[in-house]
Amino acid sequence: MSYILTISEKYWPYGGAELATHLILKLLRDEGFSITVMTGMKNIERISGIQYTYYPLLDVPSKIYLWARILGSDGQLKELVKRSEIVYIPRVAYPIIPLAKKYDKKVIVHLHNYQPVTYCSVIPYPYNVDDSSIFHDISRSARFEVLENGSVIKSILSSLMTPLNGFVKSWIAKADEVICVSKRQAEIVRCELPKLANKVRVIYNPLPDVSLIEKYLNKPTFLYVGGDSYYKGFHIFLKATANLLHNEHGVKFLLAGNFRDKNRGIISSLNKKFGGPYKIVGWLPHKELLKLHSGVCGLIFPSILEEPLPYAVAESMLAGTIPIVSRVGGVPEIVQGTYAEKMIFTPGDIDELVDRIEEALSLSKDQLTDIGASLRESILRKFDTEDIKRRLLDVFT
Predict the structure, then answer these.
(1) Rounded mean pLDDT of the chain?
(2) pTM for the full model?
(3) What is the edge-to-edge ordering of all strands in the sheet holding 200-202?
(4) C-alpha dihedral sign at 394, 54, 64, 157
(5) pLDDT in tens, 235-280
(6) What distance in Å separates the CA atoms of residue 231 and residue 348, rounded to the nearest whole number?
(7) The pLDDT of residue 212
């Protein structure tokens, strides 16, 4: 089998894209590939049989630093590329692509966001093909920094850097294969970058090993995992649940993720008003986060992004928890044909979200258990490991 050089500045347990990379490399290792991972992280979860190398050049605070350092890199990176047969880029180390092609290496890019399309790497719902001008992208990047990070300075800097994304498009155009994680993501990428149309392959991310979690449903409780991210729908979650609590007493909400002091204060005020229904559990390791599903009857996922393929929704179904989800990005592909499809709501529609939560509240414990089991069966069929492996081998061989 071939020797794969994987360039991933971040690695598991950092985030969803890194989890996907971790699981994919494990599948490829089992198929006999020789794999080296170069990463800018030291504290990572390693897979036996794969060589990991900490590379300081990749240990940078932003993608601009990353791109600049790769372009000015030393001979070590060149030698590693020369010894490889396949260069795999699952994050944003795109300046390596021209170097790899210089030595006639096969290059596979795996997209877990929309970096080739927009500088800020995310696309707010709804995507509109008429919004593809550089001026719109500058506006989108500036708006993202203000709404997501509350930073005018970052907004200005992002606006100035946005034209540099043109280099990303030219780099990725040289890749041999481009993997998208959902049909919706592939549709947007092909629309924005027609030169990639014949290179794009849709392969769902492998599922992590998540058991069907036994439920202890003493009180009606819902889980929200987006932190205080504007684009993950934190403001929508707050409005909908506050509206619900005027009529539904005794409902509880667990809030996972990172929360700034200002938003912790808002939660504190709502707790005083409604008798303490919100509990911030903060950022948790992946395994600890999954354990929360034992005490919840639903996941609330009010994102207003064109989500490529969020693990939070798939893992909810694996754990036997009903996801209440906004109709964005690849989310409908995950829940299609299941009970969870009934729980989809229009992005940003507070009344619809309240209705879906109330519908979940109307279900008995037995109904929740039966629905949870069927959701798990469905997601395991849709994200079939053997099918995903076959599609990956079609790309990597």
Answers:
(1) 96
(2) 0.96
(3) 51-54, 34-39, 3-7, 86-89, 106-111, 177-180, 200-202
(4) positive
(5) 999 999 999 999 988 999 999 999 999 999 999 999 999 999 999 9
(6) 10
(7) 81
DSSP codes of every residue in 95-151: THHHHHHHTT-EEEEEESS-TTT-TTS--BSSP-GGG-SHHHHHHHHHHHHHHHH--
Residue 325 CA to residue 52 CA, distance in Å, equals 37
What single DSSP character describes residue 344?
A: -
pLDDT of residue 268: 98
| CA gap 347, 239 in Å, rounded | 13
User: Predicted confidence band at 73 (pLDDT cuts at 50, 70, 90)?
Assistant: confident
For residue 35, what are the contacts with CB-CB under 8 A and spacing of at least 6? Answer: 3, 4, 6, 25, 28, 29, 49, 50, 51
Given this model, what pLDDT does residue 218 score? Answer: 85
The alpha-helical segments, DSSP class H, found in 31-87 are 63-71, 75-83
CA 44 to chain centre: 18
Q: Which domains does the chain carry?
A: 3-124+164-203+384-396 (3.40.50.2000), 221-382 (3.40.50.2000)
Query: By C-alpha distance, which of 76, 117, 82, 77 is closest to 93?
Result: 77
Residue 109: CB atoms within 10 Å: 27
- pLDDT attached to residue 1: 67
On the 0-12 / 13-18 / 19+ scale of CB atoms within 10 A, 218 is exposed
* pLDDT, average across residues 157-171: 95
What secondary structure letter does DSSP report for 39?
E
